[in-house]
Amino acid sequence: MEIKIDDLSDVEVIKLLDEHLSDMYATSPPESAHALDVNALKSPDITFFSGWLDGDLQGCLAIKQLTPHHVELKSMRTSNSSRKSGVATKLLTHALNVAIDKGYQKVSLETGTHEYFRPARNLYEKFGFTYCDPFSDYKSDPHSYFMTRDLLEKFV
């Protein structure tokens, strides 16, 4: 799989992000859905990655700078055709290694509490993320879990 920094202009990427937003609003109340739309993901403090295999979009993931030492994971999504194929693991490994290369020391994320989000939480736990209090501008929310981990060494 080729993972690249994406400018969010490809129709397939936009379609995948639209599906992501639709699912977030279908599984969480609007005030608890923290997914970003395409325009928000174009912010200069966000690096957006897309993963491709033989010209087909497999998934996406972004890192958002919160401070010079702390980033947040945003918009983790795999295509329906590539679920359970290791795409999310590859994207997460790549994004975390890029964050380490850029000198970040900590990464955090927000994800949902519903069963729909269980596979994502399992992946984050596998990568050593632990549950934490809300960070940045987040507030406690019964529909949100917050997770974090230090970035100490590269992932393989």
Q: Write the CATH homologous superfamily.
A: Gcn5-related N-acetyltransferase (GNAT)
- Shape descriptor reads globular
Averaged pLDDT, please? 95
- Total beta-strand segments: 7
Provide structural commentary.
- With 156 residues, the chain is α+β, with helices and mostly antiparallel strands.
- The chain has one domain (2-150): Aminopeptidase (3-Layer(aba) Sandwich).
- It contains four helices and seven strands, in the order E-H-H-E-E-E-H-E-H-E-E.
- The protein has helices spanning 11-27, 38-41, 87-101, 118-126; strands spanning 2-5, 46-53, 56-67, 70-78, 106-112, 130-132, 144-150.
- The protein starts with a strand and ends in a 6-residue tail after the last strand.
- The mean pLDDT is 95.
- Keywords: Acyltransferase, Transferase.
Brief overview:
This protein is of the alpha+beta class and 156 residues long.
